[in-house]
């Protein structure tokens, strides 16, 4: 936690380009993500719009780095001919399927950043068999919503 505080204090003193790169970096980190990145940017006095854009870019890229390779992996796992039943992968896939069935891609994408991580929600959606394009669409919408809320909240609280 102290490391994050030091990072934010240093971010306040950097030039605008490095501030935006730092905001994007916060957006990349699971569990902090776009909301916190845009919040920190607005909180330290960076424009809410540019904070949201930088944080969105960092969070979106990191979530796509989950979606693209894991979609390929899960497609391969579903298509392979295996006579085995049970096991670690199948057990995790069953649990993911239950969560997916309860909330669907939109629910997971929008709720996950508040309780866990959008990265985990994307992983669960793909493991449950969701279409990659649908997962990308809903996670893009979710990240956009969360960075707007974070930027507005950070600007409202503000650091003076």
Automatic annotation (TrEMBL):
Q: Which InterPro entries match?
A: Sm_multidrug_ex
Q: Name one Pfam family in it.
A: Sm_multidrug_ex
Highest taxon, organism lineage: Bacteria
Task: Show the stretches that span the lipid bilayer.
Answer: 21-46, 52-74, 103-130, 136-159
Protein name according to UniProt: Na+/phosphate symporter
Q: What is the lineage of its organism?
A: Bacteria, Bacillati, Bacillota, Bacilli, Bacillales
Task: Give UniProt keywords alphabetically.
Answer: Membrane, Transmembrane, Transmembrane helix
